[in-house]
């Protein structure tokens, strides 16, 4: 299993039957592949659907049905479509159980920056600020470092996505939980030691005695 | 039937410098025929309020390619390198708004509200210059309503009265924008006799639609 699918599989362990879940573009979309067959998770796409499904045959693309990236999708029986105000009502109104997003930086306070790099990349926040502020549980799914540079840092240098602390960080090396006391190392990936994680992290990590190995 | 308007005539009524709300999300549910006609007529200096600018050559991206837009109000432009290029060159002004806030600002503009309160953006650069209010111990940004001179909306079906029915994720911002502009121009993939759309299937009632773009004459 490659690093990104390992992250996605671990994130999928956080999902349970009946949850409403929003997956960000990129790595988080892989999570849908790893949902256990015996549970039903309702996937939202913020452009206006609950019950999105992947579409593997292009000959079946429907012009009026896409994901938030504009790519053709399918829908499960029982799906529902709605406008953008309703879609963000689900997100902000406490109805969304889990959002899984990528990250550029997460800091010791558990704050996320994931929408712009001043002077280099200004794509816009899209739905990210609403998702991080409004979801019941925010999971950041990202590679632990970028070109060797730490992404889990003492304090974000990039513009924040929200003032709300995220709930869990899942990387190819570790599962880290932001708490009132700081970032707690909860799990390491198979073959990874806590020292490896600390070495790849510039933020202060709280390293308890009992650290589990990721069940992936 | 008086709402039925030829495409060229409807677009000719949009002056240079107008503020347009344009429905769609990454080109899905976007009024492509109206956009193509704006490009053909070359109506410039536009202010466009929309979720995004799609991609070069797609939907609102065609207005960007033709350099007809001086200002964009959107939630993201990351999928359109040309919008970013024009922004960096100083040729186009871009205001980025969180997507849910954009939707609610448009909704409040169309529903006669003085704005909305949202926790989204508190403690971020999106809060710059905005007043805050504390309600029951929680801090909210005060976000102002958005309105436009024209709303350009796309529907799956319209009837002869101008009632609009939407499909799947092509709905997105269209019904919100249809409430929030002085003039509402609608195009539909098909126009069906009045009565074909059941009342429960009408997403935007005809009473807010000013012009329904006529289909082109059928050949043969």
TrEMBL record, chain A:
- Alphabetical UniProt keywords: Transferase
Which Pfam families does the record cross-reference, listed alphabetically?
A: CoA_trans
Keyword Protease recorded: no
> GO terms for molecular function, please?
CoA-transferase activity
Top-level taxon: Bacteria
Which ranges of the sequence are coiled-coil? none
The family this protein is said to belong to: Belongs to the 3-oxoacid CoA-transferase subunit B family.
The name this protein carries in UniProt is: Succinyl-CoA--3-ketoacid-CoA transferase
Q: Source species, please?
A: Pleomorphomonas carboxyditropha
Q: What is the lineage of its organism?
A: Bacteria, Pseudomonadati, Pseudomonadota, Alphaproteobacteria, Hyphomicrobiales
From TrEMBL, chain B:
Segments traversing the membrane? 7-28
SUPFAM superfamilies, per database record: NagB/RpiA/CoA transferase-like
Could you list this entry's UniProt keywords, alphabetically sorted. Membrane, Transferase, Transmembrane, Transmembrane helix
| The UniProt record lists the keyword Transmembrane | yes
Pfam families, sorted: CoA_trans
Its Gene Ontology molecular function terms?
A: CoA-transferase activity
Q: Under which name does UniProt file this protein?
A: Acetyl-CoA--acetoacetyl-CoA transferase subunit alpha
């Amino acid at each position: 299993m490659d690093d990104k699918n390992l992250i996605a599989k671990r994130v999928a362990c956080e999902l349970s039957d009946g949850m409403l879940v929003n997956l960000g573009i990129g790595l988080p979309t892989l999570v849908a592949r790893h949902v256990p067959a015996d549970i039903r998770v309702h996937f939202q796409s913020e452009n206006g659907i609950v019950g999105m499904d992947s579409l593997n045959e292009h000959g079946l693309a429907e012009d009026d049905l896409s994901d938030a990236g504009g790519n053709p999708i399918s829908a499960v029986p029982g799906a529902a479509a709605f406008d953008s105000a309703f879609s963000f009502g689900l997100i902000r109104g406490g109805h969304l159980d889990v959002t899984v997003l990528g990250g550029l930086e997460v800091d010791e306070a558990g704050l996320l920056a994931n929408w712009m790099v001043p002077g280099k990349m200004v794509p816009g926040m899209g739905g990210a600020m609403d998702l991080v502020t409004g979801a019941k549980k925010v999971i950041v799914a990202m590679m632990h470092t970028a070109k060797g540079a730490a992404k889990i840092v003492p304090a974000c240098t990039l513009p924040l996505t929200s003032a709300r602390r995220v709930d869990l960080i899942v990387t190819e090396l570790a599962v880290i939980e932001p708490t009132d006391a700081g970032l707690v190392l909860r799990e390491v990936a198979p073959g990874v030691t806590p020292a490896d994680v600390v070495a790849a992290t510039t933020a202060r990590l709280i390293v308890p005695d009992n650290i589990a190995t990721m069940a992936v | 039937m008086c709402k039925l308007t030829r495409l060229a005539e409807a677009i000719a009524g949009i002056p240079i410098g107008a503020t347009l709300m344009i429905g769609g999300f990454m080109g899905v549910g976007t009024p492509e025929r109206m956009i193509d006609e704006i490009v053909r007529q070359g109506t410039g200096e536009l202010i466009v309020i929309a979720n995004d600018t799609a991609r070069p050559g797609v939907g609102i991206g065609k207005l960007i390619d033709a350099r007809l837009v001086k200002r964009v109000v959107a939630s993201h432009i990351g999928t359109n390198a040309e919008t970013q290029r024009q922004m960096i060159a100083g040729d186009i002004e871009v205001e980025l708004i969180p997507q849910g806030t954009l939707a609610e600002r448009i909704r409040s503009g169309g529903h006669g509200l003085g704005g909305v309160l949202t926790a989204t953006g508190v403690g971020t650069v999106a809060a710059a210059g905005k007043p805050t209010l504390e309600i029951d111990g929680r801090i909210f940004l005060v976000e102002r309503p958005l309105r436009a001179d024209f709303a350009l909306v796309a529907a799956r079906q319209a009837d002869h009265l101008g009632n609009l029915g939407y499909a799947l994720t092509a709905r997105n911002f269209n019904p919100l924008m249809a409430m929030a502009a002085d003039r509402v121009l609608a195009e539909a993939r098909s126009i069906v006799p009045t009565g074909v759309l059941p009342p429960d299937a009408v997403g935007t009632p005809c009473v807010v639609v000013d012009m329904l773009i006529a289909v082109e004459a059928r050949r043969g």
